[in-house]
Amino acid sequence: MLAAPVAAGASVDQPGPLHAYARARLADGDGALGLAVNSYRDALDQDPARIEIARRSYVQGVESGDRALALRSAALLDQAGMLSRDGTLLMIGEAMTRKDWAGARTLTDRMAEEGNFAFIAPIIRSWIAIGEGDYAPPVIDSKDRFASLGLRYTDEHIALQALARRDLTIAAPAIRRALSVRSSDGGALRLTFAAQLAAQGAKAEALMLLPVGSANFAQARVAIEKGKGLKAIGAAVTPAQGFARLLSRLAVDVGSDTAGGTLALRLARMATFADPTGAETHIVAARLLTAQGYTAGAVVEAGKVPPKSWHAQLSQAELIDALAANGDRDTALTLARAQAAAPGAETERQVRLGRLLADGGDYAGAAAAFRVAQAGYAPGEAPWTLLLFEGTALDQGKRWDEARAVLEQAAAMAPNEPLILNYLGYAQIERRQNVDTALALIKKASALKPQDASITDSLGWAQYVTGDVSAAVPVLERAAAGAPSDSTINEHLGDALWTAGRRYEARYAWAAASVYAEGDVAARLAAKSKEGLKPEYAAP
């Protein structure tokens, strides 16, 4: 066969845009974010008119933090009328960083018309007005069906804008309201507000925001009390930074829903584009990168917060999680130990250390860390979750008697928590201890959370262990339907089916269990599939 002639202008050495695109998709599928981004950039350079290349380049540019690639591909998509709705936010942020207030306002109007993010339009317009030299506070129309969403973010921006105007009368109540909304992740926001207040000489008000004796706030408290470097740390928030903070908050809330992880990451990355030096934007981006499995990028992002920043300790917590998820457990554990040993170490530091130790098989160390976490509470007032963590670690460390006492204490504190009831009941069923009491605990857990496949499995297995096979089989079938890839559930179902005389179906269930089984479990399932259920092959 004759070779096809080389097209005019083509290079024999250059494989072409489709080759680069294919390489990018393969790298993307393998999680090689850096190679994927470089390959998408190459493909876009060679064929900027191809929409699919631009679309994938946009996604990878945003998620990898490549601002130039994201903006270039967004412009191409926008020209073709194919830009996603979140792309409008990217373009608003770019306009605000360039102080193109007219362009930002036009894009914000477009965003409002598109609908998806219309509820934050009043806040964005307020920042644009400040950029234009005017001030128009964000006003949410109470009749709007999404008013409650917009109101969730308004107070933080009212406070920051009031602080920029040195109006503490407006700022103070707005700060309180903003912190009340973000109670679970408000540490970084407290530091930001404290820096703003301290820079304006309101030291007492700033210190009131930072709990005494808390390691996360120790550096800030010392700096405020000494009065050093406060003006630089508490500089007024610019419109672009205000927009970035809005996107970061939105990213945290969207990311709390597992279905919103990808969008959350994009929003967080756009926030870092609009405010590349902001500590909070990098902290949020690092957290969401870890959650989405981009752990190497999360390590880099967490490291962008300077060690002398008031937010450095919060950033290091994200770095520990990212390092552990990225496979560098030794470094993560070293940092976690140091954080947990600091004076005034918060509960979450001990929990982070405990989980790392448990993941590494040091169950005694994990249990000890969880006990230290409880020490910060008055007797009998520690959260039941900490007792559950300790009891689980003791159980995994084969110290069942101690574990049972702790778990029973947790159950007494939270008698209607399905997680505790199920764990305590199932652990006893596994050991064939107090089976009637254990069955009652699991029945209560199942009644409280009937759609949970794991609890449903516990109930069916408990019924099987107590001899009620006819009741157990349909319950275990329901559990397997809810979690078809769960090895434990399928093995339980197989054992129950075999005992009920449904042996063909039993082998089918064991085969399903064996797909994800490993080690001793895999060997036990293979033996059952071959020889049938014998006492020595029974599931624990």
Describe this structure in words.
It is built from 30 helices and no strands. The chain has 540 residues and is mainly alpha-helical. Helix 17 (295-302) packs antiparallel against helix 18 (312-325). The chain is globular, with a radius of gyration of 28 Å.
Biggest β-sheet: count, sense, barrel? none
Percentage of β-strand residues = under 5%
Poorly predicted runs of 5 or more residues = 1-27
The backbone outline, from C-alpha atoms, is globular
Number of H/I helices: 30
Structural class: mainly alpha
What order do the helices and strands follow? HHHHHHHHHHHHHHHHHHHHHHHHHHHHHH
Give a nutshell description of this structure:
By secondary structure, this protein is an all-alpha fold.
Secondary-structure blueprint of this entry?
Blueprint: H1 17-29, H2 33-46, H3 51-64, H4 67-79, H5 85-97, H6 101-114, H7 121-131, H8 147-164, H9 168-181, H10 187-199, H11 203-208, H12 215-226, H13 230-233, H14 239-255, H15 261-274, H16 279-291, H17 295-302, H18 312-325, H19 329-341, H20 347-359, H21 363-374, H22 384-396, H23 400-413, H24 418-430, H25 435-448, H26 453-465, H27 469-482, H28 487-499, H29 503-514, H30 519-531
